[in-house]
Fold this protein.
Amino acid sequence: MEPDAEFEEWAKYKEKEEMDKDEDLYGFWFEEVCRLPKERMNRIQKIIEEGEGPSFGLISLASMMSEGKIPVVLTPNFDDLLYDAFYLFLDETPLKINHDALAPQFRLTGERPTIIKLHGDYLYRNIKNTGEEREHLEDNIEEALEKTLEEYGLVVVGYGGRDDSIMNVLKKAHNEDFGFFWCVFAENEDVMDKLSEKTKKVLNNKENAYIVPIDGSEQLFNTLAEELGVNPPTGEEIRETAEYRAKKLERKLGKRIEESSGEEKEALKEFKSKSKFKMLEKGHEKLRDRDFEGAVDTFTRVIKLDSNYAPAYNDRGSSLFSMGKYEEAIDDYDKAIELDPDYAPSYANRGLAYSRIGKYEKALEDYNKAIDIDPRNMKAYKNRAELYLFLEKFDESLKDSQKVLESSDEKKDTAIGLMLSIIAKKMLGEEVEENEEEYREICEKDFKTNWSFEELDSWLKSVNLDADKRGYLEEIVNLLREHIEGN
């Protein structure tokens, strides 16, 4: 028998032989597997840290709490996921009452949303896991629970009702003005079969107690939020909050650098430099994700950190280019070149921007300059080969295409070089069979390219070709087009 199967068989035996029908499996297994409080704390911490953070349902719950629709949440959970939902998505800090809070500090009628952690927090050793530990709540937590039940109704979600600590308080709670709503996820099972004997006794002794079948906590929280007219924050709102925080931090850092001296000043400058490169990489991620506006904002922040850093202007120019703002992109490329006259990428990029607005001679000058500075600049060779098609310099286009093929070590660059070679040879009336065979073979493989076809499409529409040649070249171009990122 496999080890996992052996464990399952043993677990079933232990549960059957050593547990009564209404005992809490959770507390039983914690006591069996992690006998020491430190072991339990470490195990829970590991599980939480490997998780994915707050679910969307918890974000909806936090949003309802933020708007005063749900003033208090009582939770036996040890994680901080609900608290994290406030911090990460609502820019708000709820009141969190834990084992170390003093009862007189509880102000449950205040405007601040409140989270009461009934069994403690995974960050502390005195969390209550085992059945024995959960027989009683801390005095202060029990008082908080009693106060809450006196002032508000109760909706129970995701709680089995098998430990004495909470159920003893619920038994004696007086709540004549508000209802008890016990939500049960039962799928195709009888709802009553899902309730513990302790839960049935509590509900049977209350006139205003109701059992509510649900499809799960996520569905419940999202449905409640919709019914109450509460909308979780949008991605744009969260981005604005993050931008505000980032700019505030940058201002404080800049001010401190101005006020400091000696080793502190040098250390802060080094930190600022590291921040710049981290931010630059974040901008590149946004570019790859096609979040061009976000990339522009990020590179602008880099420029504010270091206004003499040419790559930041170049990258912001590329982001603007991708948004179709060619003149603004050229302005940024100009600034990058002003700061670093030997920065080849900005010449290659500005050349493409000039080509996009029909200034072909200026584009050619920039491609030439980029190649003079960096003879290995593949982008400049590819773009110049394409530009030569517009200028009807097919021999020159073929030379640059061959240069791409000589230097290429990636399928996407080889494919572009072969495509441009085939077009140039076809326009020169040369044989293309060998290049075409290799090109078709590569295009059958899996790779992605961010090559823009706007220039080639424009050229194919304007060039004077017979129907057969035009159809052939369009087919060749479309073979590579199938590999555009996002297809």
